[in-house]
From TrEMBL:
One of its GO terms (cellular component) is cytoplasm. Keywords: Amino-acid biosynthesis, Aromatic amino acid biosynthesis, Lyase, Pyridoxal phosphate, Tryptophan biosynthesis. This is Tryptophan synthase beta chain. InterPro entries: Trp_synth_b_CS, Trp_synth_beta, Trp_synth_beta/beta-like, TrpB-like_PALP, TrpB-like_PALP_sf. The lineage of its organism: Bacteria, Pseudomonadati, Bacteroidota, Cytophagia, Cytophagales. Residues 69-393 form the Tryptophan synthase beta chain-like PALP domain.
Length: 409
């Protein structure tokens, strides 16, 4: 077999998916009022033009390297592998990025795009505060105003992230209406955005929302897989047999998967949170149990009631509890290129502790779902085979919660 280490040829940053209307098969698109469609089409046009310029590409590449610390390494988890038995487990270390997770990749891309488009303010909502911190970081660096809407309940719960956002200089808007959580923060941020969509930029935090966001966020995150594929080939002389990542909205997963979609011999697995169990109503396994519908301006698998309203979702990892999912994942599921499975809260906590104690790496609870699946799966495979796990973030943010949950004091 001839080894292909030529990543230029494998460049997947601008795959033909989606079509010009933002459809990935029957998913994605723009389920929005006409005036908003005009705004989204503007962003799409600007993105397609600006992202192709050498100036933009060089600026982003430079920040990825010198600011984020890319490329993030691939690490062979030797003691974890020995502990489990079976396939070798490798980790793509997105947890080592500046700010501790993959989100900085697309936040930098979005902040930079907003700046190049001459926007005056970047807006977003945040739930647990991860997207807010990454975006506030990117905006501080790029030098553009940042406004984050956050439910009062979440503000109470997520003190460290709230303080970080304030230190980073963003305007934090507490949301006191309704449930005072993420859902209402979305509405509040969006209302602010609609006051002046010409001058404001709404930065979506995953591969969701109306076109062009699922495409744009994917393109910014695809650096993960582009690096990983080349790194794996160079160090192992072959591709991994399987790659896997956790799926909330799906940005870290599509970021890893994109470069490998054409490699038929590589099995690709997305891992959703099954929470307290798929048979309960306490999970967020959208692709596993959802049905097609519309949410937040696009079409995708949804966890919804008979009237099409989003059902309450749950995960031990707050970054994974979203009732929709990125449209490209829905498409990849339907065509069978990617398989989606799930891991429970209990499996996640076990993986969190096991990885910490075999490798000295404390993973984010989100990422621990992918580690949990790899631990389950490695046993079924031979020691000559390998699984590459996207370690999307570090667990610093989750430590208090885990200590309380497991009573480790
Ligand atoms: C936000 C987050 C996720 C979930 O988001 P995706 O868009 O599905 O990647 C996963 N891991 C970490 C560490 C996160 O912060």
């Amino acid at each position: 077999m001839e080894l292909d280490t030529n990543t230029e040829e494998q460049s997947v940053e601008f795959l033909p998916m989606p079509d010009s209307q933002g459809n990935f098969g029957e998913y994605g698109g723009q389920v929005i009022p006409p005036e908003l469609k005009a705004v989204m089409d503007d962003i799409n046009e600007a993105y397609l033009e600006i992202s192709q310029t050498e100036a933009f590409q060089n600026e982003l590449a430079d920040l990825f390297k010198h600011y984020v610390g890319r490329p993030s390494p691939i690490f062979f988890a030797k003691r974890l592998t020995e502990n489990i038995g079976g396939a070798k487990i490798y980790l793509k270390r997105e947890d080592l990025n500046h700010t501790g997770a993959h989100k900085i990749n697309h936040c930098l891309g979005e902040a930079l795009l907003a700046k190049h488009m001459g926007k005056t303010k970047v807006l977003a909502e945040t739930g647990a505060g991860q997207h807010g911190v990454a975006l506030a970081t990117a905006c501080a660096l790029v030098g553009i105003d940042c406004e984050i809407h956050m439910g009062e309940i979440d503000i109470e719960k997520e003190k460290p992230n709230v303080i970080k956002m304030k230190i980073l200089g963003c305007k934090l808007v507490p949301v006191s209406r309704g449930t005072r959580t993420l859902k209402d923060a979305v509405d509040s941020a969006f209302e602010e955005y609609l006051k002046n969509p010409k001058d404001f930029f709404y930065a979506i935090g995953s591969v969701v929302g109306p076109h062009p966001f699922p495409m744009m966020v994917r393109d910014f995150q695809s650096i993960i897989g582009t690096e990983a594929r080349q790194q794996f080939l160079e160090s192992q002389g072959k591709l991994p047999d399987m790659i896997t990542a956790c799926v909330g909205g799906g940005s870290n997963a599509i970021g890893l998967f994109t470069a490998f979609l054409g490699d038929e011999e590589v099995k690709i697995m997305g891992v959703e949170p099954s929470g307290l169990g798929l048979e309960t109503d306490k999970h967020a396994a959208t692709l596993t149990l959802g049905t097609p519908g519309a949410i937040h301006g696009f079409k995708c698998y949804n966890l919804q009631d008979d009237e099409g309203n989003p059902l309450p979702v749950y995960s031990i990892a707050s970054g994974l509890d979203y009732p929709g999912v990125g449209p490209q994942h829905c498409y990849l599921k339907d065509i069978g290129r990617v398989e989606y499975t799930s891991a429970t809260d209990a499996e996640c906590l076990d993986a969190f502790m096991t990885l910490s104690r075999t490798e000295g790496i404390i993973p984010a609870l989100e990422s621990a779902h992918a580690v949990a699946f790899a631990m389950r799966q490695a046993k079924e495979m031979s020691p000559e085979q390998s699984i590459l796990v996207n370690l999307s973030g570090r667990g610093d943010k989750d430590m208090d919660f885990v200590i309380e949950k497991l009573g480790l004091e």
